[in-house]
Amino acid sequence: MCAQAEAQDRLTFRRIIVKNNAKKRRLYEAFIETLPLLTSLELSERMKVVDVLSSKAYSDGQQIIAQGDLADCFYIVESGQVRITMKRSRTKKDPEEEEVDIATCSRGQHFGELALVTNKSRAASAYAVGSVKCLVMDVQAFERLLGPCMDIMKRNIANYEEQLVALFGSGTDIEEQNA
Length: 179
Fold this sequence. Notes:
The protein is α+β, with helices and mostly antiparallel strands.
């Protein structure tokens, strides 16, 4: 009798897990379909993306990525806001660096792709503003699944350069900064 009850509990547990995974998958599928970056992917490719995503929560002020670190993941903001900052010298005479806000990402926006596309270290840092949930894809899955999106991401690098010129008043070259 005890073994039968235990088997029943395992079956119930397995059903709950499968049901929750299916619900999570449907939510991610619907969310992924709204992302402009991924519209060039076929439906089957988007489903593969959904399969490799994991969700990670961050608390207010928590650092998500650090400028200068090696790239290991790509992030999509599921909820909340993420502050993107970049270090720069205060003046040419004062080598001490300060962090300058360069962007804010909110639901549906992504970050962390620059270092993955250029194979360089992180060009900026990212911090949670309030409670944040991100969908995270590791570098291997990123390279394998997002190949069709590479051209879009490479075009975005030029946009990042323009934003940096507007913010810093000079052509802080992302490629050189990561060298």
